[in-house]
UniProtKB/TrEMBL annotation:
Organism per entry: Litorisediminicola beolgyonensis
The family this protein is said to belong to: Belongs to the anhydro-N-acetylmuramic acid kinase family.
Keyword Magnesium annotated: no
Pathway assigned to this chain's UniProt record: Cell wall biogenesis; peptidoglycan recycling; Amino-sugar metabolism; 1,6-anhydro-N-acetylmuramate degradation
Function description: Catalyzes the specific phosphorylation of 1,6-anhydro-N-acetylmuramic acid (anhMurNAc) with the simultaneous cleavage of the 1,6-anhydro ring, generating MurNAc-6-P. Is required for the utilization of anhMurNAc either imported from the medium or derived from its own cell wall murein, and thus plays a role in cell wall recycling.
Record lineage: Bacteria, Pseudomonadati, Pseudomonadota, Alphaproteobacteria, Rhodobacterales
Class in the EC hierarchy, top level: transferase
NCBIfam families with a match to the protein in the record: PRK09585.1-5 (NF007141)
Keyword presence, Transmembrane: no
Name by which UniProt lists this protein: Anhydro-N-acetylmuramic acid kinase
Amino acid sequence: MARRQEPIWALGAMSGTSLDGVDAALVLTDGVTVFERGRSDYRPYSDDETRVLRAALGRWPGPGLEAAQEVIERAHLELLSQFPEAELVGFHGQTLAHEPRGRGTHQLGDGAALAQALGRPVVWDFRSTDVELGGEGAPLAPFYHWACARGLGASGPLAILNLGGVGNLTWVDPASEAPEAPGALLAFDTGPANAPLNDLLSERRGLSYDRDGALAAEGQVVDGALELFLEEGYFLKMPPKSLDRDDFSVMLDLVRELDDADAAATMTAMAAAAVMRGVEHCPTPPERLLVTGGGRKNPVMMAMLAAGLDCPVVPVEEAGLDGDMLEAEAFAYLAVRVLYGLPTSCPTTTGVGAAVGGGEISRP
Ligand SMILES: Nc1ncnc2c1ncn2[C@@H]1O[C@H](COP(=O)(O)OP(=O)(O)OP(=O)(O)O)[C@@H](O)[C@H]1O
Ligand SMILES: CC(=O)N[C@H]1[C@@H]2OC[C@@H](O2)[C@@H](O)[C@@H]1O[C@H](C)C(=O)O
């Protein structure tokens, strides 16, 4: 067995598809085991910053991305400079476009400039190598989900679901020796989660999201729209598979004629149904589904999942994890794996031909 490396305090930073802000979290790890979790913090984007980022989505390659790049770099520098104890930084950046078999995957933000500004080594551009080698380049949190499942001492397979702008699911066999071992993981994006409903409510009501599922709780799910949604070819595709934020624009078209409450109920049901389809792909039924990301705070979404699945559906907090910071922690963990030459994705997480380590290291 390879010699274990020194654990280090790494700081992970994630700016997700919801465009609401940057999360940062410290993790003490050797890239295999998580020994401790440290401080974390969140730096929200102002409404103006969110508008600038929203306008940049899909516009890669530029020109005209300077303002968005400035928002990303300023917000990250403000937040990450509050963590002088970090020995290494994992910087995801902001995904502007994700088309693994088209124009590629692009995360906005210059990690080399950030390394200079912070005076710390920064690992960044985590997804490109995987895509260049034929993988989806996403999801990447699954290797960290493996470490979380191992840390919980789970006896049987479990699944971790992230409900962000997009949804992604990881099935883990916690008895596996390494995340890249055959049969250890199966991961993929389930479908749209919160992003399309956020966009609808922003357009119709100037709201950023359906807080606590209040609007969805008032409406009725329109079965015809839900059935049409589930006819999308994406659900027939075998995993691994991944999505760009706005790949499911059909969802907005399907609810166009509905009132706000019915649209919210139907879109919430669509996101939940996409997860149920996803769970069918798991190699064995998970003993429980641990839910991370903002969608776990939506009781309507959680009730729909619980009603449609045969296993308990609980927020990751029930397992002692922090669902607001799990993705930031994942990029801290992945940064250490890159530093130590360990893989960050494999055939069952991104479909890449063999286990690969993505990520570039920039030193100050
Ligand atoms: N109390 C709540 N009630 C309902 N929905 C909520 C609540 N809190 C957060 N959300 C939803 O979760 C979203 C934020 O989720 P999260 O921060 O996990 O997304 P992200 O990390 O940006 O996305 P991704 O994981 O796709 O990159 C919000 O935009 C909102 O739709
Ligand atoms: C290309 C990209 O940024 N994808 C995100 C997005 O948000 C959720 C889902 O789609 C997931 O595939 C991924 O993020 C998480 C952090 C991941 O890579 O695991």
